[in-house]
Amino acid sequence: MSKALLVVESPAKARTLSKYLGRDYVVRATVGHIKDLPTNSLGVAVQRDFQPTYQLIRGKGKVIDAIRDAANGVTSVFLASDPDREGEAIAWHVAEEISRGRSREEVPPFYRVLLHEITRAGLKRALEAPGRLDRKRYESQLARRILDRLVGYELSPLLWKKVSGGLSAGRVQSVAVALVVDREREILGFKPQEYWVITSTLKGRVPPPFAARLTRVDGQKAEIGNEEQARPIIEALKTASYAVEAVKREEKSRYAPPPFITSTLQQDAHRILHFSAKKTMSLAQRLYEGVDLGEMGTAGLITYMRTDSLRVADEAVAAVRDHVRAAFGEAYVPASPNRFKNRKSAQDAHEAIRPTSMEFAPDRVSKHLERDMARLYALIWNRFVASQMTAARFDVTTVTIGAGARFTMEATGRVLLFDGFLRAFRDVEADDGEEPALPPLSEKDALGLAGVDGEQNFTQPPPRFTEGTLVKDLEKLGIGRPSTYATILSTIEEKKYVEKEKGRFKPTDLGFVVTDLLRENFPQIMDVQFTAQMEEELDRIEEGEAERVQVLDKFWGGFQDLLKAARTEMKSVKQAPEKTDLACPRCASPLVIRFGKNGSFLACSSFPKCRTTLPFVRGEDGKPMMVKEEVSTEKCESCGADVVLKNGRFGRFWACVNYPECKYTKPYSTGFACPRPGCTGALVEKRSKKNSTFYRCSVRECDTVLFGRLKSTPCPSCSNTFMEEKGRGKEKSTRCPRCGYGGAAEAAAE
Hints:
With 750 residues, the chain is of the alpha+beta class.
């Protein structure tokens, strides 16, 4: 008989903890949430104080049975789900299911265990000081879930009716889409302003020559808007006499950055490693849950990765300071530990994201990790080490130069005196580096002229959001919490509200339309300040300063009034779609823009008589333009009409131009034969539900599937006519799908 039951969320975490615990414990995993609101009804009794109706998630019956069986006869149950609101809800639901059907005497005592790191020492500390289930934290999670259900369950059907079936709206996701839409409108409405930068190349008493930029004209700030203004100035500077007016030298420091929190980890992993937020959190989860390190055993390598706190345990600070002293020397250790101030809304129960032990240096553990896991771990390690190092120091020289009586110029030089924390962590986008050193200069020194250059520039619009910069804005505005960022970004892309163009978010037509409709009819829901305020209300519930029912009731009163008005007043783009100047190529009727699950498309206005649908793009003037369909050399086998290339839900396919009246279709073949020996099929292009392209054999009985890019390069080892390429840049690998020839080495040599 087991002495105690330990319940966690993840099977990987369960395996790691089982290795630490003896025979007196049995460990079981819930595999995420076990209960949720129903999928086919609201599940919230609004009139009865918003009482939720939870039910077991489909497929979790065996999981619950295993946990209930393991709880038979144990002396205690330790609920060790993740140390956040979602984990608290899981802990409560597990306790409810274990208690169901048992008498009070049969129910074992429940203890809440918060595992901030999955290590032997971390587990020991948690089990030696277990707590109780936190009712306030559970109430906060419950309030969030009910809020999201009320908004999503009521708004989504409204969008189905007014725009298209299958759409969704959310309290947080819709505001995130609005940020992308507003940024795109800024870009579209931006009017570039011309400006000129004028630089003189000057020579002092000793080399090297240096550049000085024009800063003032006749005592006023130099603002040169066109070539007509620039040319006279350039000509005057060519004949002017130059002399040093002032030399200012100062030492400037750049202080160590704090360790990562969830948002900054996602930002830097995207910017430096080019990881999506979803990938970053998936890899971080695995680093947290535990990794087999060979002779070093199994251990979690980082602390809990969903956090907005910058706090670090005193023993961890002491350990990293010792590491810095040993690795870099005493000069790199600050006199007292660096401390970082949390944001007001930070949940200080957690620590920042850090390595669990300084014994697990990246060069020791990387051989046990997948490449991307190792890269992410090294990023976390280096940032944590740098956070407890001394500041970098720079010698900055600023020289003010007079050019004749009218012009003032300025030159700067910057030299790194001491690298400090930059020794461990260098931010490629920050002001870390040096500028060319200036030669020795003194006041009143005469300077020689080597040349004058005028450069035309134009002001630039604000850039589109990347995943990293959108997370940064969400955090800055108080929208969402660490556990929600990755989900928000993946949801708005999966729902076709935004798409990525060169790695940056661009709103689709659907995103524009839905944002405008929601903003017009639900201004409160779409208001950034209101959304941030709701997050604060959830925090207040957790802190015991607000009641769940009061918060929900206050929200529901105003939302219900808006909802009632929107059902009758919201414009329907289904019944009144956007008209265009384009004509249907089949019946000459006007084409209109309609919306579906896969975004917007052109449709014949005489639907359902004519069912023509066509893809389109918008020109620089914003007007839609038809995308010319690719026409096959073959003819339709049913009616003899042209066969054109269509885009469907699961990829491209050939179809009769009269489709769907004529049902003739044919898979889109890549032109490559199936690589399986003896198979006579060809590879056809398909698209998954997550919109990724793959290739499968056209013969149904053949299970050949390829996920890489197909390259028209014959295999040097066999008769196969193509190679499969995966990855990009240094990670690119090429192999033959028939004989397996190739890999990263061949790709690098190529």
